[in-house]
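Structure tokens please, single chain.
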Amino acid sequence: MKLAKWAHDLAESLLAESHPQRWAHSLRVYSQALALAPGLGADAELLAASAIAHDVGYAREAVDTGQHMIDGARYLRDVAGADPRLCSIVAFHTSSPWEAAELGLSAALAEFGPAEQRLVDAITYCDLTSSPTGHLVDPAARLVEVLERYGPEHVVYRAVSAARPELLARVDRVRQRSAEAAQESVS
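Here you go.
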């Protein structure tokens, strides 16, 4: 858990005091990633590290483009020297490709591609099952909350609206993989 500890300490230093609610959310996303560990094998720690660091792009020190996924990935890469796979997962989490397209930042997002779909699915699941205050939540309800919080004129609203079917498909794929992993461990 060396990589996860490093990412935890970095994210805590960037978010805990300045963005306590975002930090509470990140802690739940991390907890959800740890719960997925049995089905991830060697990538379990990478997902845990990505989960705790997924929102560092909101930190004042990281803001560059205004798209927190890209900003977080760039900060992790350029300032913190993070593993390229970790940066990619952070860059592509949840609705990032749709938001990047809305903002004209698809080329910036491509700096971190191609995305590893299985891990992007997993971090999206972790993000969508974690409320903004760090509670467990149903992914469909979480998407409704995001839409209500941002409103129809906001880029996040438009991106999440367009991404919603794929985001829920990611959640379903993770649930299926988790069920299969659980079944294999029983057999």
